[in-house]
């Protein structure tokens, strides 16, 4: 009888307000500029390549994901200020900001950059010299260290835009005079998302200027070691069982 009462008391404890609560994990999302890596739908629903991977890592775990969505520059300032500890977003060793300081052990995707231009006046790109006299369309807030020397010396002019809709609009209005430099996966996703025909544009590899590089999950530099180990272990498991490739493949 005593054993039954003890079991009942334990069950009541974990079904009451005294139950052990889950630990928060803070996931940071770039607003409007990061598709297909991070996509925020109307009503606050979240998806995307990185988002799906983060959610899979913490599925059936003791961590609750708190979503934080900000414009790029504001997000960076909040990460640097550690407004929330134990945060996760995505980054690369090539970027040189806080998104490069503490990365997952294995990459989750390999990035390729391309040039997009209007198909009305096609041209052949081989070297940076082929862009002389053209304006390069770039997303507002992002850094492009491979292009900055050419912009600084006046070899390239830059046009900054807030999103992909604006970038495509510039190309359509100024065929032959402008090119859009961006990750190939983002270009294709956003053209398709906006019901634009890729055959109306010219897409060329830009690897001779911006080399391919890996994307990782990026962690709070002061993340708890046990949490970081948990994430890295889950990523390895997801790579080995094919789950990482399956998630990435949904958005390509």
From TrEMBL:
Pfam families per the UniProt record, alphabetical: SBP_bac_3
Signal sequence bounds: 1-21
Keywords recorded for this protein, A-Z: Signal
Domain annotation Solute-binding protein family 3/N-terminal: ranges: 31-252
Record carries keyword Heme: no
Protein name in the entry: Amino acid ABC transporter
